[in-house]
Write a structure and sequence with these properties.
The complex is a heterotrimer of chains A (about 300), B (about 400) and C (about 325).
Chain A: H1 9-19, H2 21-41, H3 58-64, H4 67-98, H5 105-113, H6 120-130, H7 137-143, H8 160-185, H9 189-197, H10 202-213, H11 215-230, H12 234-239, H13 251-261, H14 265-292
Chain B: H1 2-15, E1 26-31, H2 36-50, E2 55-60, H3 64-77, E3 84-87, H4 94-98, H5 106-111, H6 114-117, H7 122-126, E4 128-129, E5 132-133, E6 135-137, E7 145-149, H8 150-155, H9 164-176, E8 180-183, H10 188-203, H11 205-213, H12 217-220, H13 226-238, H14 247-255, E9 259-264, H15 269-274, E10 283-287, E11 295-296, E12 301-303, H16 310-324, H17 326-336, H18 352-363, E13 366-367, H19 370-373, H20 376-391, H21 397-410
Parallel strand pairs in B: 1-2, 1-3, 8-9, 11-13
Antiparallel strand pairs in B: 3-12, 4-5, 6-12, 7-9, 7-10
Chain C: H1 9-24, H2 30-38, H3 52-79, H4 83-87, H5 101-109, H6 120-150, H7 156-166, H8 171-184, H9 191-215, H10 219-227, H11 232-243, H12 245-261, H13 264-268, H14 277-285, H15 294-315, H16 323-329
Classes of the chains: A mainly alpha (about 300), B alpha/beta (about 400), C mainly alpha (about 325).
Chain lengths: ~300, ~400, ~325
């Protein structure tokens, strides 16, 4: 424990506990309760309405027998890995650049952040146009005389997911940048002074002093990006509709399509149970490492 | 202003017989008609309903499938239902009816003699479960159309095709001229729409009914159907260079002459009209692809959730009658670009292509839509299959037939 | 945290404690605070001239900014074209004939059934939903984060872990259970219910955000305040809150954007007279049949985005170095 237990221990815990009641209620009732409900109904053949007609593992068998689901998972892995790395790196670099006491910081920050304010439905459409070989970037470059130039990610099943990535990063890096900037602004000036006095190069100061101090911010950023990746849906629908063919399907879309297009709730719940299971496999060991050993460490 | 009030008087006169009480009730109606023409059409319903002394509270939510449906279902199961709601009829609403959440409209339908006036009768059948009527069909949308740009054919030195075979024969010349023969948006429902339109055109309505209606998987996998899948493969080749997503972008390729034709439902006409084109002049339409002149009579319907409030229940009845009233049917369908559900109304304002549709309807050459015959689950599986097929040239006609037959076999 | 850093530990610790004491007692004069904020220090020393460093710095920023602005350019240009011009398909070309008709239509004319008053219809409803939802969710989450980071209690980490897992659940999966829960407590269909839903779904990420930020703050501040006898709420309001303005800005950005752009919860948990502006936006951009007016779509999207955008710009002024950092110097 960080603080030496002073007045009465129960008193201190009481305030915190009362303050945490909404959180505890949410965690137990909504997330645990809702999840249990979902898992339960994944064993039924619910169609339009949730019904308790149990069919065992049928939904799961169909799920893993579906080419669409397998492709969804592969896409999620590719999209997730690239999205995570690029968003963190680019977000941090932009924040570091903005933290150089530059002019027009407000303007630049707003430019980088504004995509976050726009709904996916239409930004997906704008990107779909830009990447369209007939009237987007490819057409413009070819018009300049480079006839063999080919850039049609959305119409090539092998690389379509990267086309989505371009738009996805465009949308989210601004937010990560802001988060990083908030982290950088939380770093004490004296640390920079000290580093300068000691003659440590700027990049080393960032890499070995500042970034480790921002661990909490990075953890937050990773969760923020990762939860966004798992939930990616609108962007795909707006930009590719899952196509060409089924080559840019993602798990969240599989879930929604099953629940609301196919009206096969059971199948949707089975798919979301699988998603949740994989999240738990990652998050719980992390939480154990995070809270299990040392006391107050971020 | 003056015009409006005259209209209101007319409307109220038309609706008067159904207006049992003068009590004004607010009735919330949800639907997914939100684009310009659709909204104007809904306004006709609302106007007619308001004229009965009640008040239409509009709850429009765009996007039929993934967007509007969960909202409607949540509202109904959440115990706070709207007064009336648009819903896909046919198999999709069955469960809500079975769960006892929807109001039985049989008495209203009998009083209004719906059985006699609704044409084709299959529309009312889709609203019926265990002999009771649960919804009001309001229009007919048909899907079996091939839309062609006349100019493109003339420029390539060709006759405008009169059926699918001629169209296929013209394709090589069109391609030489740098024109995409067949425009196709790459959303799953569009590709499977093209397929089932081809199925009816090539194999005929009887086989269609056996496959989609009776789920005859053996027939679906048999040689009798092989030409259909070959035609689909041909359509895939012809649309290879069509790089668009939305159906209206594909229609736009036809309008601007980048493509020669598109298989799409009658709603595509709105785009041609917006671009200032006239049926028979700049563009042609071939119902049933010119092969089997049959149209599928899909359409929209309204359901009325059960409520405790007597005033609302009464207002629901008024609205059901208003929707079925001849005047409202004409006003609504002219704006919507669809066909009325009653055979006994006069549609003088209809254009060339609508007239063709009306003729076919009058002859009774109609079939049900896949939505009416199959569960949403099977329909989605078929959609997924064909979007894959149309985007992956390595899948042969034979492969896709095998997989199609498997889906039909699994269908309930 | 201090063990990771070099030298000067003593003065830092000392002055941090000092600062905390200052704050729990009489606050530092406002003017002094303000001046420190505005000259808030940053990374390395800035150079005034057109140096190589500056060229690289601004060059990079401008190139990146161009990438970010490209889609906006396409959207703005499209929104000022008429439909016939859009059919030509040249998305980068500036409009031959500039028209603001789509903007007018998006704001005040686009129809939804009977109601032809465009986005303006839902604007006030959106504000009515936004304000309480943002305030409540940030208050609850920041107190959660503070309790978790500074006042560890038994079981806290377990609930926190559950919340983090909850951050990954797609919203749509939770619709039916939440409808059932709200129906059972009688809040279904009310504004209160909607505010609660927004608070619930904002909670995982926000709690994480605040917890990690508070945990990274100098522990000495907290200790010193405890020595002075400050309680749970005193420390929260006097020390934690003023020192974490930038993270509150991030929280505001997240919530304002999320709630303002939310469409699904807005329609599921309210009735037509309370529908947010995004319902109208969805109706404009998401129509599946009938003619799709791209110019109005784009105008409507930009118009809807203006509210979060202005919040970014205004609240961005709070992106200052923590006040504690300033106080430490004194």
């Amino acid at each position: 424990m960080a603080v030496t237990a002073r007045p009465a221990r129960w008193h201190r815990n009481l305030s915190a506990k009362i303050a945490a009641i909404p959180m505890i209620a949410t965690a137990l009732v909504v997330f645990v309760g809702g999840t249990a409900w979902t898992v339960l109904y994944s064993f039924t053949n619910s169609k339009l309405l949730p019904r308790q007609k149990f069919v065992g593992l049928d939904q799961y068998e169909r799920l893993w027998g579906s080419a669409k689901w397998i492709i969804s998972i592969q896409n999620l892995a590719i999209y997730g890995a690239f999205s995570l790395v690029f968003a963190l790196v680019v977000g941090f670099l932009l924040a570091a650049l903005l933290d150089q006491k530059i002019r027009f910081e407000d303007t630049f920050r707003t430019i980088f952040l504004y995509p976050f304010a726009l709904s996916f439905i239409v930004t997906g459409l704008a990107w779909q146009w830009i990447l369209n070989p007939d009237f987007g970037v490819q057409a413009v470059v070819r018009g300049m005389g480079f006839e063999s130039f080919t850039f049609d990610p959305l119409y090539n099943p092998d690389i379509v997911i990267y086309g989505v990535l371009i738009a996805g990063l465009w949308h989210e890096t601004g937010l990560i940048m802001c988060l990083m900037l908030a982290g950088l602004r939380g770093i004490d000036e004296d640390i920079w002074k000290a580093a300068r006095v000691d003659g440590i190069p700027v990049w080393k100061t960032y890499l070995f002093i500042v970034i480790p101090m921002m661990r909490g911010i990075f953890v937050t950023a990773v969760v923020l990006i990762a939860s966004g990746i798992i939930k990616v849906y609108d962007l795909i629908v707006a930009q590719t509709g899952g196509g060409p063919g089924i080559s840019s399907e993602v798990p969240a879309k599989y879930v929604y399509d099953a629940m609301f297009l196919s009206q096969n709730l059971g199948q949707g719940f089975a798919a979301s149970t699988m998603m949740l299971l994989s999240v738990i496999i990652v998050v719980v060991p992390w939480a154990y490492l995070e809270f299990g050993g040392k006391a107050r460490r971020v | 202003m003056v015009r409006k009030s005259i209209l209101t008087v007319l409307m109220s006169a038309a609706a008067m017989p159904f207006c049992m009480s003068a009590q004004a009730t607010d009735l919330e109606v949800t639907h997914w008609w939100t684009s310009g023409g659709e909204a104007a059409a809904v306004a006709e319903f609302a106007k007619a309903f308001d004229a009965t002394g009640n008040h239409w509270v509009d709850g429009a939510i765009a996007g039929s499938g993934g967007t509007a449906r969960p909202i409607m279902i949540s509202r109904i199961t959440g115990g706070d239902p709207m007064g009336a709601t648009q819903f896909n009829h046919g198999r999709q609403a069955e469960e809500l009816v079975e769960a006892g959440l929807m109001r039985d409209l049989t008495d209203i339908a009998e009083a209004g003699k719906w059985r006699e006036v609704v044409n084709p009768p299959s529309l009312l059948d889709s609203c019926t479960l265990d002999g009771k009527i649960y919804c009001v069909p309001v229009n007919i949308h048909s899907q079996q159309w091939l839309w062609l740009n006349n100019d493109v054919f003339k420029k390539a030195g060709l006759e405008v095709p009169k059926d699918w075979n001629e169209f296929v024969a013209a394709a090589p010349k069109l391609e030489e001229a740098g024109i995409v023969p067949l425009a196709m948006g790459q959303q799953p429902w569009q590709t499977s729409l093209a397929f089932q339109v081809l199925l009816v055109a090539v194999a005929g309505p009887d086989i269609y009914n056996k496959v989609y209606g009776d789920k005859d998987a053996e027939l679906a996998g048999s040689d009798a159907l092989a030409p259909v899948f070959e035609a689909a493969a041909r359509a895939r080749d012809m649309s290879k260079k069509s790089n668009v997503q939305s159906w209206n972008d594909a229609t736009n390729m036809v309008i601007t002459g980048k493509a020669a034709g598109q298989i799409m439902g009658d709603w595509a006409q709105g785009e041609f009209q917006m671009a200032g084109q006239t049926a028979g002049k700049e563009y042609s339409c071939l119902p049933g692809l010119g092969m089997n002149e049959v149209i599928q009579t899909g359409g929209d319907a309204f359901y009325f959730p059960k409520v405790d409030d007597a005033a609302i229940t009464e207002a629901q009845g008024v609205l059901a009658n208003v929707m079925m009233a001849p005047d409202t049917q004409v006003a609504f369908n002219l704006k919507k670009g669809s066909l009325p559900v009653r055979g006994d109304v006069d549609l003088t304002a209809a254009n060339d292509c609508m007239r063709k549709g009306l003729d076919i309807l009058a002859k009774g050459n109609v079939i049900a839509t896949p939505d009416q015959l199959m569960s949403a689950d099977s329909v989605t599986q078929i959609n997924d299959l064909f979007v894959e097929f149309f985007n992956d040239p390595s899948i042969t006609a034979k492969d896709v037939q095998t997989r199609f037959a498997a889906i039909v076999a699994d269908a309930e | 945290m201090s063990d990771t850093i070099i030298i000067k530990e003593k003065p830092l610790t000392y002055s941090a404690a000092q600062a905390a004491r200052d704050m729990s007692g009489t606050a530092t004069p406002a003017g002094e605070k303000g001046s420190r904020v505005s000259e808030g220090p940053s990374g390395s020393k800035p150079e005034k001239t057109l140096s190589r460093r500056n060229i690289i710095l601004y060059g990079t920023l401008i190139v990146v900014a161009l990438y970010y602005l490209l889609p906006l350019y396409v959207m703005v240009v499209t929104s000022m074209k008429g439909m016939p011009e859009i059919r030509l398909g040249n998305i980068f070309a500036p409009p031959m004939e500039v028209t603001f008709e789509p903007w007018v239509k998006a704001w005040s004319e686009a129809c939804t059934g009977l109601n032809c008053d465009g986005l303006s219809r839902g604007f006030l409803n959106s504000v009515q939903i936004l304000v309480p939802s943002v305030i409540l969710s940030i208050i609850i989450a920041s107190v959660n984060g503070y309790a978790l980071a500074n006042w560890k209690f038994k079981g806290g980490e377990l609930f926190f872990t559950i919340l983090i897992v909850g951050a990954f659940i797609p919203y749509q999966v939770m619709i039916y259970p939440i409808v059932i829960m709200l129906r059972e407590i009688g809040l279904y269909g009310s504004l209160t219910g909607l505010v609660i839903v927004h608070t619930i779904f904002g909670m995982p990420i926000l709690t994480l955000l605040f917890r990690n930020y508070f945990a990274s703050m100098p522990e000495e501040l907290f200790k010193a305040a405890r020595v002075d006898g400050a309680g749970f709420w005193q420390i929260y309001f006097r020390i934690m809150l003023p020192m974490s303005l930038p993270i509150f800005v991030v929280a505001i950005i997240l919530q304002v954007t999320g709630i303002w752009n939310d469409f699904l919860f807005g329609v599921i948990f309210t009735k037509p007279d309370l529908y947010p502006m995004t319902v109208q936006l969805n109706n404009i951009v998401n129509s599946t049949q009938g003619v799709i007016e791209y110019n109005v779509n784009m105008a409507a999207t930009i118009l809807t985005g203006l509210v979060p955008l202005s919040v970014y710009f205004v609240s961005g002024k709070l992106f200052v170095r923590g006040i504690a950092a300033g106080a430490v110097k004194g």
